[in-house]
Amino acid sequence: MDGWLFSFMTASALMLLFPALPVAWSLPVLLLGAFWLAYQRHWVLSGLLTGVVWMASVGHWQLAWQLPNDKIRQVAIIEGQVETLLQAESSPRFTLRLTKFDEQSLWRSVRVRLSWRDADWHLEQDQVVRLAVRLRPPHSMLNMGGFNYQQWLFASGIRATGYVTKAPQNKLLAEGNSVRQWWLSRFAELDIEHRGWLAALSMGYRGWLEADDWSMVQRTGIAHLIAISGLHLGMVSAFIYALVALLLGPVLGRVRQRMNLHKLALVTALLATLGYAALAGFSLPTLRAWLMLALFVMLLNSNLHWRPRRILLVCLALFVLLFPLSLLTVSFWLSFSAVLILYLVFWRWPTRGRGWAIGAALSVMLRVQLALSLLMLPLVAWQFGLVSWVSPLVNLFAVPFVTLLLLPLCLVALLILGLHSEAGQWLFALADKLVDLGLSAVAWLEAQLQSAVLLPAISAWVWLSVALAAIWLFMPRGLVPRSLGWLLLLPLVSTWLPSRSDAWHIEVLDIGQGLAVVVHRHGRALLYDTGPAYYSGSSAASAHVLPALRALGIRQLDWLFISHQDNDHAGGQADILEGVAVLQLMTNLGRCQAGWQQKWQELDLQVLWPQLGEYSSQNNQSCVLKISDGQNILLLPGDIEKKVESRLVATEDLRAQILVAPHHGSATSSSTDFIHAVRPEHVVFSQARFNRWGFPRPEVVTAYQAAGVITHDTGSSGQLRFKIEAGQIQVQGLRATRYNQWFMQ
Question: Is 293 exposed, middle or buried (0-12, 13-18, 19+ CB in 10 A)?
């Protein structure tokens, strides 16, 4: 059985790497083959085929409903129920489970993700609404070091995204009756400083945490403390078990009823944790933890004895069957890795039944924390691009502080809050002081130690070899030769050796409707434009440009060029200046004027436009930058239009092998004369997919293709990477090379 479970899990996970799913008609045939192999007792092959059939079936089911092409960015009338727990705000983002689409009832459950600027009423969980919306298929910007929002949407079962438009059809059809929403509303009335942290600890709601809070969570590795998961459910179940045993033990002993107090306490604890999981919104980490707890209770009550390996495999198989899309989430692999590491720790250093002692308990805690920090490092470094030095020390104190003191106080305060608001306020005020004390201690530790080191992007295969090396060296002496473990670290060491390549690189980032281009060589870089700022307060610079720079290993910019002051080009300037050291700033309002030249990293930088004293629209004041290595040339024209193009054609040598299309492929730019003067081999359109302006315009794309130019657009390809070496140009799109799985198509 263990072989079947392991092969089923392996095949299910490997199916996520495939660029396409098996055709639907082949799945019944494969399933019959799996049954036949099981009958022949070929358990491993049977499990592999079953895993393929299961994940392929899930994939086909998820892709069965697609937004019709004629409805993309068109107004549609939808009805559904709000799923997201919401706080009072004028521009909420929420998930809606659809029941009707353009007056037609849906035959299956479909989720969409919406934003609503200046909402007509206060949205709450479980409300039934009718809304006029503009939708588009799930899509995200893809850049090195950035968050894969499209994968998150698919894992959440969301089949379209969009926004609510102002329309008379927008109606609240029924009020919600969510207990969790009611509790959040009571929570919002509390007069406490650290509401966000306490709401996360108490009920798993993290919407009040700020960007600085999340940054601190990543640097210190305490995310598991603010996600309602195994740690929290374990403490709640232990508390309920002890309470039942304490209250009912004397009673049952006195009346001598034939009732097993142990089993009664276990079942009561399980039901109590189910209620707590409901309060946390049945998030995937919570459900995974509760299922493991339920399996544990079932084994205890039935007097079954399974080896830890069997328990782990059964739990994982259940997760894949019940929540197959959770395989696409980082939290699943972090949880799975943590459980596996705990199993290895207690196998490597088994605890002896010599009674309870503080020293022994502290020794076990220290051993577990150090093992988790070391063995989880490759996965955390691969996914988040950082290594936290302070994490083991912070968790050593934070875990007992939260689980033994803060969490019980928060849960009692939450129960009291539902009965008596003033008493709940007093208890949460006490918890608030404890949170303040804990955050102050973490801040002090961060000040004493460098909390985290940011890492450049390193191949997943390198981190896999590091993980295998850590496990290898973890084994007892004599079981495996240690020298082979050290050899597995060589791929990581090789990534830090200086490169002998003389290539220079151009990264046209995928930042939606805007522009940001990184040119780098020998670890030195310049940035041309920063992308837009958003009305929410964030920007493409903080979400995409800065993570991409970190992934490239770039810690400072020699030059920052701002082509012109439009938001889609300069909106993130402040975030760039704050987030990375910039040695020289060049703007079209300052030194970025025609005639400026500079030698940089054996490349020639030359500004062709604007002319000094020339005044025009912002677009036609764009700083036009030419970068050359003597053989290959990059031309960055900003948003210039045909009027300026004709001036440049008449006065400048515009020949370039790589061109970033003027004004994102607008019909106001890219004249025939300009295309013939530049004669590019590659042209890049930097724009959002499904953008409202229809960029790049079809006639512009046709004009370039008629001239024999290879066309690329970031909306379809993600970040575009040009490598120029020895006169040769290599180009890769991130979507085709790294994110070409079936769920990303």
Answer: buried
Residues 6 or more apart whose Cβ sits within 8 Å of residue 271: none
User: Cis peptide before 68, with omega less than 30 degrees from 0?
Assistant: no
Question: What is d(CA 86, CA 132) in angstroms, rounded to the nearest whole number?
Answer: 20
Q: For residue 259, what are the contacts with CB-CB under 8 A and spacing of at least 6? A: 252
Give the tens place of pLDDT for each residue, 194-225.
988 999 888 888 888 888 888 888 888 888 78
**Token representation of residue 227:** 């996600």
Q: E-strand spans in 391-487?
A: 452-454
Are 204 and 286 within 8 A, CB to CB? yes
CATH 3.60.15.10 occupies which residues in the chain? 504-744
Q: Report pLDDT digits (tens) over 54-100.
A: 999 999 999 989 999 888 889 999 999 999 888 777 778 899 999 99
**Domain 69-177 of CATH type 3.40.50.720:** no
Q: What CA–CA distance (Å, rounded) separates 111 from 106?
A: 11
Pick the CATH number of 504-744 from 3.20.20.370, 3.60.15.10, 3.20.20.190, 2.40.50.140: 3.60.15.10
Only one residue has tokens 């993700």, namely: 113
Q: Copy the structure tokens of residue 389.
A: 């030095």
Nearest residue to 6 via CA among 40, 47, 42: 47
CA angle at 624 for the pair 620 and 629, rounded to the nearest 5°: 165
- Indicate the average pLDDT of the chain: 88
- Measured between alpha carbons, how far is 398 from 375 in angstroms, rounded to an integer? 19
With CA atoms as reference, report the closest residue to 644 among 666, 601, 612, 614.
614
Query: Where along the chain do the CATH 2.40.50.140 domains lie?
Result: 69-177
Secondary structure in 3-state letters for 465-526: HHHHHHHHHHCCECCECHHHHHHCCHHHHHHCCCCCCCCEEEEECCCCCCCCEEEEECCEEE
